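Proteins fold reproducibly. Look at a concrete instance:
___
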Amino acid sequence: MKILYIYKYCILGGVTTQLVNRLNYLSQMCTPYFVFLSDHGGRSAFNGYPHIYILDNKQKMINFLNQNKFDLIVTIDTYEIYEVIDELKINVTVIHEVHSTYITTLMKLKEVLAKSEIAAIITPSEYLKNKIIMNYSEKSNIPIYCVENCLDTSLFSYKDVIYESLNNERMLLWVGKLDDHKNWKFFIEVAVDLKAHLKGDVIFQLVGGHTAPDSIKNEFIRTISKYKIDGFFNWIPFVDYKNMPEIYSKVAKSGGLCISTSIDESFGMSLIEAISCNCPVIAPKVGAIPEILDGNLSQYLYEVNNKEDCINKIIRRLEIISMDEDYITKYGNSFIFSNYNIPKIGNKYLEVILKTVTG
């Protein structure tokens, strides 16, 4: 089976990571092609795989589809393809994947569902699936499947790293894009209060933001300076994805944790990455996050945008004397390895696409 994946941004981010993970599984049974509408350095994630294309205008996409016949087209939050399909009158099965929780993106989905032939919708969480059913799905006869994101567990596991600091500070890590959705300003507010409460016992590290507009980067730098925490705050705009396990492992070794401050999440990839490396997490009870942090892991949830609850959960975790008292460091990574490994999720995904293509 020949599959075409289409996504706007060829970037070293969450969607690209999922495409690479799927390639590792699907390439045994299928021939995946990947088309991106803009190049932001994400090709390296595919390790030289030949079928990666940057088609930055409509005519290039038309030419590409005229030259290739696909059994299945999968578009991920990318709506430009529907105009091309309609114009060429291609008879092909189309699956639409939704990974974004932005209202503007979901409203586009509602428009497309009203006029385009989509065979199925796939989301990475039950939360997003239910959100689409309740608010954005005009055609109740279109099946909507939940297939969770998967993790390369051969890469993401605890590494025996060396952690050195002047005063044995514990690291508090935040990972994500500098946008309103990820709520980076709330993390800084939490950092300011924690610095006052814990004195010099912690340092803060933010990873991400290299694709943010300069105006946002400048606002971020000004905010750090304004609150006078720049001496305790380390910003790393870009990290090669394969080096992230080392960062999570350093945080774990320091006795620190990874903090999420999102106001909505379609999945929560950084959380399972951290947990797989024995790095404890504190995250808001919002979106799909409670699907990951359920059962014993739910003790690490706080009420979204509730600074007092967030800080109390962080302090309580930092006060744990023995790591044996912490569920994540005892059992968390085995939970992630069992539930989100590539073969398990890959097989679930393959079953969905085969069912959709064969009708």
About this structure: The CA atoms of residues 187 and 213 lie 19 Å apart. The first strand starts at residue 2 and ends at 10.
